[in-house]
Amino acid sequence: MAEDNDKIFHFEGFKFDPGRPNLSYRSKTLPLKRQSAEVLALLVKNAGKTVTREEIQQQIWPDRTIEFDHGINAAIRDIRKALGDNSKSPTYIGTQSKVGYKFLKTVSAQPPQGGLTDRRIAISALLLVAVVVALIAVAFGGTPRADKPKLGIMPVAYDAQKGPSVLEADRLTSSIVRAVAENQQKLLVISAGELFGEDRPDPSIADMSKWFQVEYILAASLDMTEGKKTVSLRLIRTEGYVHIWAKSVNVEADYHKAILPLVDEISAAIE
To answer: Of the residues 4, 99, 114, 188, which has the fewest C-beta atoms closer than 10 A?
Structure first.
């Protein structure tokens, strides 16, 4: 299936380009070792079918049979870590004991798009929005202003090497957006991670400030220490990039419940 290396595979927000190789989730690149990427390519190309260990050996380790068992086990662990999968209750990689592995999700394959890079496309889209805002201002005789200050919520930052996965960070981002948007009336909430869909790079803090004219930014990072997850939040006023509020809290599986008590503090910190 060498021709499949010219295709890019998509599944549930993930994008996998076996020709590079590169695995990403909503434009965030995920760490994946070379042989792990080769195993993942074999699985996604045969999604829904069991790929036997012998088939994997023939494709990936044809001349290194002594290292095969260790290699395949390490590759599957590496893939599961990148996907945020669990071997006991798998979402992506199913195991047929002593036989092989099956990719459980539906996969779509598309040829790579030529022309502009994702980043340039995102910037072009941002510029288009800025032009539209300017045209509205000209048409109505002034710059349109909201009655409420705008708060841009950035995607949660994380370090995959320290434990958190991109899926956990993404779920936490959604919880923060929902908690702030639904439980206060003072702010207009803009989610940076949802502006352009899963295949566009997230805007930076500078992008949000410049093109969407948000007055405040809420940035967060997810850390894991000794098995405990902690989210650190920073509220930034974009005029002068002044940090006006910060807090760290422990978060468990129910991210929304952990974030909800902070909404009043965030709202109160905004003038």
So the answer is: 114
Instruction: Give the number of domains in the chain.
Output: 2
User: Mind listing the pLDDT tens digit for each residue in 18-30?
Assistant: 988 889 887 778 8
Q: What is the pLDDT of residues 50-67, one digit of tens each?
A: 999 999 988 888 765 556
Phi-psi region of 174 (alpha: psi -120 to 50; beta: other; left: phi over 0): alpha
Same domain, 158 and 225: yes
Q: Where does a domain end: 63, 89, 110?
A: 110
Long-range contacts at 156-161 (CB < 8 A, ≥ 24 apart): 156/220, 156/221, 156/222, 156/231, 157/219, 157/220, 157/221, 157/222, 158/221, 158/222, 158/223, 159/223, 160/30, 160/31, 160/81, 160/82, 161/31
Residues 265 and 159 in one domain: yes
CB neighbourhood size of 260 (10 A): 17
- Spatial separation of the C-alpha atoms in residues 230 and 254, rounded to whole Å: 13
Residues 86, 149 share a domain: no
Residues 99 and 151 in one domain: no
Lowest mean pLDDT across 126-130, 219-223, 224-228? 126-130
